[in-house]
Fold:
Amino acid sequence: MSTTGTLALPEFRAAGTDLSERRRSGVSKGPVIDLVLPGDDGIIWGADGAATIGAFATIETIAADKRIKDAYPGIAATALGLATPQIRHLATIGGNLAQRSRCWYFRNPHIACLKKGGSDCPARGGNHLYSVAFDLGPCVAPHPSSMAAALLAYDAVVSTDRRQKLSIGELLGDGSDGRADHALQAGESIRSIALPAPLPGERAHYKRAISRSYAEWPLVEVCARAVIADGAFKSVRIAAGGIAARPLRLKASEAMLEGRLPTEATIANAAKLATDGAKPLPMTGYKLELLNGLVRDLLTQIAA
Structure:
């Protein structure tokens, strides 16, 4: 397998929880630009109850904020579920969205891959046990951001120092560019994340499947939210991470649930539709079983 030089372009550092590891391993050796943007580390609430989260707000700040828990329970639960208390205390939501791939081929400084200027994705023909189950493009590494999946479920929009109101899809791309983990331009930084006003009576949950009991990147993760009104599902949003080069909305499941009674049969059918459009690799078919189970479990919690 061919080798590659290290990434030499300048890279931003906020808390540096991801960048520090890449520099220790030798994957990143370019100059570091420390981000110091006072005022971008809090949560601002609008008159309609909508929240705007500064890019420098820590994951712990989001997980512990009572108003976030009440208004956006899926966001708070996702923040609480990722990493360790020490990392959550330092890591920022902007950094979580902009972090680099966790693929072990990318993280090995001696192996070439698309994200390091190589000509192909070595995981595709190699060990891709933790790779995608929805094959969207040349790179088969799943996107590593848990917060991105939750924010996708909440129709959040991101503002940078150059652009306003980017959807999560626009921020992360469609997966067709295997060289990048996001669509930020060179030198562009995330400044804030805006959430829509919470829905009255909304219920939401988050759950992940991991390969060990604590502090691991998820194999599959799901954030689901809905309103139960007049005995039926309304305003359903389900987003999954760990399964594709970007988080995915499970639109077939959402459409099937809308307006239907939250029965066991309805939930089981929606969970089956979660794998609609999947293209698993030879070693990743198990992720579809995990996805089915997580969607079923979350919808059952929401309906209870």
Remarks:
- The two ends are 52 Å apart (CA to CA).
- The CA atoms of residues 233 and 259 lie 5 Å apart.
- The longest strand covers residues 220-229.
